[in-house]
Amino acid sequence: MTLEVRGVEKEFPTRDGPLAALASTQLTVEDGEFICLVGPSGCGKTTLLYILAGLEPPTRGQVLVGGHPIAGPDPSRVLIFQEGALFPWLTAQGNVEFGLRMKGLPREERETRARGLLRTVHLESFERAWIHHLSGGMRQRVALARALAVDPAVLLLDEPFGALDALTRERLHQELQEVWLTTGKTMVFVTHNVREAVVLGDRVLVFSPRPGRIVAEHHIRLPRPRHAEDLATAEHAARIALSLRLGGEMAHGPTDRQP
Questions:
Q1: Enclosing H/E stretch for 204
Q2: Is the pTM here over 0.85, yes or no?
């Protein structure tokens, strides 16, 4: 499902007047594309993600999904938070089944689909585990399976691996790439980790400091699956990190451009 961001701006009210979080932003995410957003803290990356999810209205501008304006949250667009936001009173399988129960699916169908999704994220032995018994990486896998259960067209991910150790993060990079290649879903992923963005994204968009705007666009044409330790990944990441430090004002290679 295609996302179109047309001149979106976002301001938040404060005692001292409006605080500009996002400057005028133009962006098109094609159906089935994997986009990563990087930039300094407070630059509006997560704000844009919340606007795409329908959880925040833009102050100005418009967002279209499949050609239709966003009117609010919708199960066709699912946001995965940094901490997973799982229900601690439910098991791993119960969390995955939750959205299916809300949709009114019969119990047997819910259970079958939930077990299949837990296998997809390599948690087939943990269906009955309570959330507090799972590691951070396992919880994020449950969150991913729960998001996939309602079969959204768009997955929005807000630094879901930021708090994980390097080994777990690398494993989840591989699993998320597998999910994306298998499902063909549109994904928008916010991260502070430039190498993570190169591993995952078709395009990496660099944001300026607040008020955020897209100042550089890097196309990543490396074959998949990608790994964080690969030399080509490191070379792309170094170029994007330099672009980030300079606010996008740099010479770009043949696969990169500035808007």
A1: strand 203-207
A2: yes
**More confident call, 162 vs 155:** 155
Question: Is a pLDDT exceeding 60 seen at residue 191?
Answer: yes
Beta bridge partners of 10: 22
The encoded tokens of residue 1 equal: 């499902």
Listed in sequence order, the residues at least 6 apart from 133 whose beta carbon sits closer than 8 Å to its beta carbon are: none
Instruction: Give dist(CA 221, CA 219) in Å, integer.
Output: 6
Residue 61 is encoded by which pair of tokens? 């501008």
- Domains, the chain, ranges and CATH? 3-76+152-257 (3.40.50.300), 81-151 (no CATH)
Comparing CA positions, the residue from 156, 219, 226, 158 lying closest to residue 188 is 156
Summary count for the chain: helices (H), strands (E)? 7, 11
C-beta separation of 84 from 160 below 8 A: yes
Closest CA to 60 of 23, 11, 20, 9: 9
What letter does residue 56 receive in the DSSP assignment? S
pLDDT in tens, 102-117: 888 889 999 999 999 9
Q: Taking residues 39-65, report their average pLDDT.
A: 93
Strand 3-12 vs strand 203-207: parallel, antiparallel, or unpaired?
unpaired
pLDDT of 172 above 60? yes
